[in-house]
């Protein structure tokens, strides 16, 4: 009877620990409200009119270090510019290099620009935000 209770307790513990809300980022990466709209008809964002194009978006409600918006073949992606795998520090702001990868200077981590897939050092993708694009060229980014 005691063995059955121990097995049952172990099973419940494993089940509850496997059901967490981890978004894949370290706990010290700040979570802020993100709500930004940009218009791709404006020259500042015209790079988003072609697949592979990208822009940095900064300002109020654009994350703590800004957002990286990428045009893919099927739509848009938006990533937080905080490195997702290490606590924020001086060199942990992500940036685009050679128009093909996202880089973190703190530890040399790299991700594929169009997919966010880690390719070097990091084991998780940058934090992604929801992107809504309307037919008039206005893109809204939220979390």
Describe the protein's topology.
Blueprint: H1 2-18, E1 35-39, E2 54-57, E3 67-71, E4 76-80, E5 95-97, E6 101-104, E7 109-112, E8 118-120, E9 128-133, E10 138-142
Antiparallel strand pairs: 1-10, 2-3, 3-4, 4-9, 5-6, 6-7, 7-8, 9-10
Your description of this structure?
- With 143 residues, this protein is mainly β.
- The chain has one domain: Rieske Iron-sulfur Protein.
- It has one helix and ten strands.
- The chain has one helix spanning 2-18, and strands at residues 35-39, 54-57, 67-71, 76-80, 95-97, 101-104, 109-112, 118-120, 128-133, 138-142.
- The strands form two sheets. The chain has a six-stranded antiparallel beta sheet with strand order 1-10-9-4-3-2, with no helix packed on it.
- Strand 9 and strand 10 (138-142) form a beta hairpin.
- The longest helix is centred in the first third of the chain and has 17 residues, at 2-18.
- The chain starts with a helix and ends with a strand.
- CATH fold field value: Rieske Iron-sulfur Protein
The Rg value, from CA coordinates, equals: 19 Å
The CATH class: Mainly Beta
Give the end-to-end Cα distance, rounded to a whole number of Å.
Answer: 48 Å
How many domains in all? 1
Strand order of the largest sheet: 1-10-9-4-3-2
Judging from the principal axes of the Cα atoms, what is the shape? globular
Series of secondary-structure elements, N-terminal to C-terminal:
HEEEEEEEEEE
Total number of helices? 1
| Beta-strand fraction estimate | 25-35%
- Residue windows where pLDDT falls under 50 for at least 5 positions: 6-23
Signal peptide: 1-21
Keywords: Signal
Protein name: Rieske domain-containing protein
Organism: Empedobacter tilapiae
């Amino acid at each position: 009877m005691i063995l059955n209770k121990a097995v049952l307790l172990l099973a419940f513990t494993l089940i509850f620990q496997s059901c967490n809300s981890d978004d894949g980022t370290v706990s010290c990466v700040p979570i802020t409200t993100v709500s930004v709209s940009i218009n791709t008809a404006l020259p500042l964002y015209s790079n988003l009119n072609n697949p592979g194009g990208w822009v940095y978006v900064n300002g109020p409600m654009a994350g703590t270090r800004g957002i990286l918006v990428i045009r893919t073949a099927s739509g848009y992606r938006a990533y937080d510019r905080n490195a997702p795998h290490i606590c924020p520090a001086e060199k942990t702001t992500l940036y685009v290099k050679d128009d093909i990868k996202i880089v973190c200077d703190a530890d040399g981590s790299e991700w594929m620009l169009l997919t966010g897939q880690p390719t070097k050092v990091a084991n998780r993708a940058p934090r992604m935000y929801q992107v809504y694009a309307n037919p008039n060229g206005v893109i809204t980014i939220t979390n």
